[in-house]
Amino acid sequence: MKKIIFILALFISFSSCKSSKRSKRSSNSSSKIITKKSDANENDRVVISSEEKKYTPRNANSRRTKADNIIEYAESFEGVRYKWGGTTKAGMDCSGLIYESFRAYDVNLPRISRDMAKRGDKINLKDVHKGDLLFFKTGNRRNAINHVGLIVSIENNDIEFIHATSSKGVMTSWINETYWHKAFYEARRVL
């Protein structure tokens, strides 16, 4: 009986691992977001439909690269719990975080980390920049890429990257941490 329950639970978990699909809204329904530019003048309102709205960075007026915007979007998920196949603030996995962060700025990547590792140009770790991707093999039996992170900063020859771990959810780590240094496989530039 225990085996049947275990197999049933395993089957359910595998059948729900696909990335979530978003419902399509009809063009008739357009929720509006109204924001005020200043408190002094009520006529200074800006109306943006939710279909047109992209994530707006904190410093939208400053000159920012696409990589900066993607990184900031990814950082908005920091602290979100891990969920295999997740792509929302309700739960996120490593490839879901990268997929959604790049998608928010019209960069289409595959949904799975090992497929992402086939995109862009392979680069040496010493040549990486903010916005590049790091790929890892974290000791699974198939010896395949199974983890991805996004470089958010480079300080004193150490690389900080954001990713989602099964134990702590979306967080930042450093490549020189023993675990990540040993698991590192390659870096790629997709921007």
Automatic annotation (TrEMBL):
GO terms for biological process: proteolysis. The keyword Hydrolase applies. Residues 20-40 are annotated as: Disordered. Keywords: Hydrolase, Lipoprotein, Protease, Thiol protease. One of its GO terms (molecular function) is cysteine-type peptidase activity. The keyword Repeat does not apply. InterPro entries: NLP_P60_dom (IPR000064), Papain-like_cys_pep_sf (IPR038765), Peptidase_C40 (IPR051202). Residues 64-191 form the NlpC/P60 domain. It comes from the Bacteria. Coiled coil: none annotated. PANTHER family: MUREIN DD-ENDOPEPTIDASE MEPH-RELATED (PTHR47053:SF1). Belongs to the peptidase C40 family. This is Cell wall-associated NlpC family hydrolase.
